[in-house]
Amino acid sequence: MLMRKVPGFVPASSWGLRLPQKFLFLLFLSGLVTLCFGALFLLPHSSRLKRLFLAPRTKQPGLEVVPDVAGHPPVQEQEPPPNPAPAAPAAGEDDPSNRANQLRRNGWPRRTRPTRPREEATAARGNSIAALRPRERSVPFSFDFNAFQSRLHHPVLGTRPDESKEHQSRVHAQKEKIKEMMQFAWQSYKHYAMGKNELRPLTKDGYEGNMFGGLSGVTIIDSLDTLYLMELKEEFQEAKAWVEESFHLNVSGEASLFEVNIRYIGGLLSAFYLTGEEVFRIKAIKLGQKLLPAFNKIDKPFGLYPNFLSPVSGNWVQHHVSVGGLGDSFYEYLIKSWLMSAKTDMEAKNMYYEALEAIETYLLNVSPGGLTYIAEWRGGILDHKMGHLACFSGGMIALGAEDAKEEKRAHYRELAAQITKTCHESYARSDTKLGPEAFWFNSGREAVATQLSESYYILRPEVVESYMYLWRQTHNPIYREWGWEVVMALEKYCRTEGGFSGIQDVYSSIPSHDNKQQSFFLAETLKYLYLLFSEDDVLSQEDWVFNTEAHPLPVNHSDSSGRARGRH
């Protein structure tokens, strides 16, 4: 749900902005603050998003002169030196055969990739950047983990079923297969790329990328809660040890604020809330203090939120609206902010349902073949296509159906099911039974990509994410059937000797791999598949809300809310 690359990149201007239009995309607003930084209680109630260029201003190692932030005066604190600088990318990394390796998301809302030639998207992450500063601050934060656990309505890993019966079940075998896939993905990463950001399974080496400002090990932090959830205890301890000993924050560089937030801070926070291990809390707070996100609200056309905002005028520009790449996480976080607040944040709730009504009015369509889809809106003109990233919307709408007006609840449940069915069709109509990056509804062709540059699959999670939410809401076995089809397709077309890899053309039964095991494959795709075949009280929706990288953050149960109950 945040973007992961913006087409049309040109070299940065003297303003330091990466987009040719010099626009800084800003759609997360209150949702993102509440979900990640809200969990840390770090940010003031309102502030302004700024792009900071924070190269060190003094020659003293690890120090720089930066303005104080209201409420957060800087406190100098040294940390061990960072790991040696990563090696330069291997030759051929930018070859056309590896373009699907490039950053999975545009640089903003949800996981955005371009749906035009991939080479246009190289540095789009620079759209939403914050500088990582080589200084630390004190961590004046206390948290009673035992009291927190006592307020959960369900044990984190659920109430254990009868082991003798469960081990005989087909569902248990399916869960164990997904667990084995996670174990294989982790072991491959550990063997060939430990400490690097992501694994390249064909060349059996690591890849750093340029969107994390010098931070490394994103696969490790993205994997923590999935390893814990699947009770891969040895692997979890390996990941924890790396965080303790090798995850250094003494780095300086430009990073995607969104990506650092959802992956690093989200992963560390969820690991802390699941385990109570102090190392995760401390690292999360120190890293959070290095980021300065802030958000305003302004008038919006037709109740919709365009994807681009001018950092100079503060006004919307281009009037491009999408529930897929560049905009998806914003809508998702509105309903999730409401749920995470234990249904007390009325502003987030009202914004979500108002936005959903606008989406229905202006973007929702039904194809001649009866497929429901959410189109993209450009200055009043619809593009009749839907991106893979937008397929999270089926799960989002299902998640929000319960708290809608009574007369709308059944409608939203049906809408969620129809959108999820459309996304399944994009998988079913390919040779590999995996879905393309974007699919169109025109010229008599429905739910298929119309050009090679949109035909790739990079291990994305959005479709199985919606399967999981729809399963938990309806227990319709079709969602587990569809999920298992994805498992089999991943095994057949994406598993290689050195790990899992995306493929460049879902319409070819002879896969051409992109040589990238994305960190979100371990954080999201495998987690959602595992939960699809788990009991509903495993990471129960009464207690947990997933951020856009599938890191579970707790619902704000409190003693005064009247909702708190002891654990079973």
From TrEMBL:
GO terms for biological process: carbohydrate metabolic process. Pathway: Protein modification; protein glycosylation. Disulfide bonds join 391-423. GO terms for cellular component: endoplasmic reticulum; extracellular exosome; Golgi membrane. One of its GO terms (molecular function) is calcium ion binding. The chain crosses the membrane at residues 23-43. The active site is at residues 259, 328, 437, 462. It is an enzyme of class 3 (hydrolase). Its cofactor is Ca(2+). Keywords: Calcium, Disulfide bond, Glycosidase, Hydrolase, Membrane, Metal-binding, Transmembrane, Transmembrane helix. Residues 64-131 are annotated as: Disordered. Ca(2+) binds at residue 548. Its EC number is 3.2.1.-. The keyword ATP-binding does not apply. Belongs to the glycosyl hydrolase 47 family. PANTHER family: MANNOSYL-OLIGOSACCHARIDE 1,2-ALPHA-MANNOSIDASE IC (PTHR11742:SF28), MANNOSYL-OLIGOSACCHARIDE ALPHA-1,2-MANNOSIDASE-RELATED (PTHR11742). This is alpha-1,2-Mannosidase.
